[in-house]
């Protein structure tokens, strides 16, 4: 099977967010593989080990994205592709990303594409469905179980807490939800091996694209932090009277119950 | 100005989800005098839902009934929405940022080469353009976003953030049943397993009771469910509680998991890791109950009780029962 994983690097979830000059301040921040993409990498490796084939991890980013690709290779992916848009693009959106990926996949034989169901930074969740539509293959989002047999995928999909059992034939794009698997940690031998694996670097030019071809359909006009919360009220006294006071405050002051 | 906006009414087991009504209010924020056309699709009786969309402010409604719409699929719903878009040629399309909305809108946007703003929590029209506010980094920050040029105003809205208009029982409008041949579905839904314990959806709940590691066991969550039932709310959890196996991952609130913005969020035995706070700190009123007075959850709480949750919760439940008359 030819398995591809779409990967994005994101801020570490531990990071507090600060805004400088109207932009998210990235200086000094730690970056990780988007947590939902980690499930995708893990699942790709599991499926390859079961059915044979290769796992190729693809990211669009800058030269720093190599770090997350090496991590995916150390987990067990076979190849990695970095599409470096740093020199060509000022701003992009999901439309931009998918334009680039569509071109990348143009000459590829694909059986399965996996992605995270959402990136925890921009969180639009559009790239997976958008790409599947461009490649005219079916997609299933937020999957929590995947079994492939004779070219058919049996899938369990999380639907806001309910579970749907879905059948669909390959080629297919899926986006991964928490609960699908437990991503493995990288091992030292894995990290050593990863250094020798193929990491291909492309720019828009290599895909016969220029920045006009992939111009975004949306634009961000400003970024800001939510207002700081005022310090709240700590209740005091006997527990029973604290609870009584709380219920009174919620119904009469806050008016939420 | 006769701007037409198409909104999607979303049925859940035959009943419209509340976010459906919020899309109508959102359409009016896109263009104050918009003609709002509601689309309701499914397999079964749709007339009543269509009437309800009109009572909530839609000017008219279109229903599409087909056996292949019994279960949501991006292909089935996508075909219908695109066919209606082609016929109506709206200036905008608004849907809830729900499982279905997240799934089908990017498919349509991609097919039609459109920009799409997902998960908007506020909308303003400044006269020259429509500006959407949406959370990024799980609510640690916000961005204002526009669709460039004069492209279709296409967005999904987060439940619970844009207030629905008042329901007017006497409002009427034309309801048209439209025939669409929904076909060639490649994704087949074999079975739907309902796991949700209450009727209230976590992402749409006005009140959320969330438990953390402090709840200590799956059994410990029972009192949270009892309180949620009394208040008409939903139960959520921290990652810690999910990892420990106290509850299903589908209840997880945080940077991974769901982001919720209810009117009332009650955090029980949750310390308040930054990842969890990202998922709930924009709730309107936050109550924290924790035995550790240093717990960082108290930094975002409007009301805090330092105490043993196993002592506090039974008292809380009793008090709510007593105040029963106040509870809507």
Summarize the structure.
The complex is a heterodimer of chains A (257) and B (328). Chain A has 257 residues and is an alpha/beta fold. Helices cover 27% and strands 31% of the residues of chain A.
Verbal overview:
The complex is a heterodimer of chains A (257) and B (328). Chain A has 6 helices and 15 strands. With 257 residues, chain A is α/β, with parallel strands linked by helices. Chain A folds into 2 domains: 2-207, HUPs (Rossmann fold); 231-257, no CATH class. In chain A, α2 (66-75) links the parallel β6 and β7 (79-84). In chain B, 26% of the residues lie in helices and 27% in strands. Chain B is globular. At the A-B interface, α3, α4, β9, β11 and β14 of A face α4, β7, β9, β10 and β13 of B.
Q: What shape does the CA trace of chain B take?
A: globular
Please outline the major beta sheet of chain B.
Answer: 7 strands, parallel
Please bin the fraction of helical residues of chain B: 25-40%
- Helical percent range of chain A? 25-40%
| Count of discrete alpha- or pi-helical segments spanning 4 or more residues of chain A | 6
Structural class call of chain A reads alpha/beta
Return the string of H and E elements of chain B.
Answer: EEEHEHEHEHEEEEEEEEHEHEHEEH
Distance between the termini of chain B: 40 Å
The main β sheet of chain A shows up as:
9 strands, mixed
CATH-derived topology of the largest domain in chain B: Rossmann fold
**Uncertain regions of chain B: pLDDT < 50 for 5+ in a row?**
none
At the fourth level of CATH, the homologous superfamily of the largest domain in chain A is HUPs
CATH superfamily heading of the largest domain in chain B: HUPs
Strand content of chain A: 25-35%
Gyration radius from CA atoms of chain B, angstroms: 21 Å
Compute the CA-based radius of gyration of chain A: 22 Å
The quaternary organization reads as: heterodimer
Q: Quick check: average pLDDT of chain B?
A: 94
């Amino acid at each position: 099977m030819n398995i591809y994983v779409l990967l994005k690097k994101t801020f570490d979830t531990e990071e507090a967010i600060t805004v400088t000059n109207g932009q998210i301040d990235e200086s000094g921040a730690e970056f990780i593989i988007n947590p939902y993409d980690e499930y995708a990498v893990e699942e790709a490796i599991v499926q390859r080990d079961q059915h044979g084939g290769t796992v190729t991890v693809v990211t669009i980013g800058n030269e720093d994205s190599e770090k997350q690709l090496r991590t995916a290779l150390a987990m067990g992916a076979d190849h990695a592709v970095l599409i470096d848009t740093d020199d060509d693009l000022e701003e992009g959106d999901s439309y931009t990303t998918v334009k680039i990926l569509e071109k990348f996949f143009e000459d590829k034989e694909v059986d399965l594409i996996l992605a995270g169901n959402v990136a925890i930074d921009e969180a639009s969740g559009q790239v997976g469905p958008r790409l599947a539509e461009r490649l005219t293959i079916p997609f299933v989002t937020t999957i929590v179980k995947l079994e492939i047999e004779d070219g058919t995928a049996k899938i369990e999909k999380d639907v806001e807490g309910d579970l749907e059992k879905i059948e669909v034939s390959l080629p297919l794009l899926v986006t991964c939800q928490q609960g699908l698997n437990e991503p493995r940690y990288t091992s030292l031998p894995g990290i050593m091996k990863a250094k020798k694996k193929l990491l291909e670097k492309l720019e828009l030019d290599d895909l016969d694209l220029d920045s006009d071809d992939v111009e975004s359909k949306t634009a961000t006009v400003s970024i800001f932090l939510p207002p700081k919360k005022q310090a709240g009220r700590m209740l005091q006294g006997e527990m029973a009277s604290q609870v009584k006071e709380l219920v009174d405050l919620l119904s009469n002051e806050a008016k939420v119950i | 100005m006769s701007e037409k906006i198409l909104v999607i009414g979303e049925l859940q087991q035959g009943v419209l989800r509340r976010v459906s009504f919020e899309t109508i209010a959102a359409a009016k924020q896109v263009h104050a005098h918009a003609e709002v056309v509601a689309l309701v699709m499914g397999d079964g009786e749709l007339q009543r839902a269509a009437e309800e969309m009109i009572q909530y402010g839609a000017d008219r409604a279109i229903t599409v009934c087909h056996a292949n719409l019994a279960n949501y699929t991006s292909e089935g719903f996508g075909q219908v929405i695109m066919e209606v878009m082609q016929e109506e040629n709206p200036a905008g399309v608004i849907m809830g940022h729900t499982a279905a909305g997240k799934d089908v809108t990017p498919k349509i946007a991609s097919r039609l080469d459109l920009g799409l703003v997902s998960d908007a929590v506020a909308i303003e029209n400044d006269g020259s353009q429509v500006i959407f506010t949406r959370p990024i980094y799980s609510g640690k920050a916000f961005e204002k976003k526009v669709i460039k040029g004069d492209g279709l105003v296409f967005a999904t809205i987060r439940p619970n953030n844009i207030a629905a208009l008042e329901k007017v029982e006497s409002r009427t409008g034309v309801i048209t049943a439209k025939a669409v041949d929904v076909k060639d579905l490649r994704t087949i839904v074999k079975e739907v397993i309902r796991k949700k314990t209450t009727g209230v959806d976590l992402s749409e709940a006005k009140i959320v009771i969330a438990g953390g590691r402090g709840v200590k066991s799956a059994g410990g969550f029972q009192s949270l469910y009892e309180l949620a039932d009394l208040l008409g709310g939903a139960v959520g959890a921290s990652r810690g509680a999910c990892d420990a196996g106290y509850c299903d991952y589908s209840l997880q609130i945080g940077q991974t998991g769901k982001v919720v913005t209810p009117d009332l969020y009650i955090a029980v035995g949750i310390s308040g890791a930054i990842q969890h706070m990202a998922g709930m700190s924009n709730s309107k009123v936050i109550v924290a109950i924790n035995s550790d007075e240093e717990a960082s959850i108290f930094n975002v709480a409007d009301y805090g009780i330092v105490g043993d949750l196993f002592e506090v919760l039974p008292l809380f439940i009793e008090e709510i029962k007593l105040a029963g008359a106040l509870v809507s």
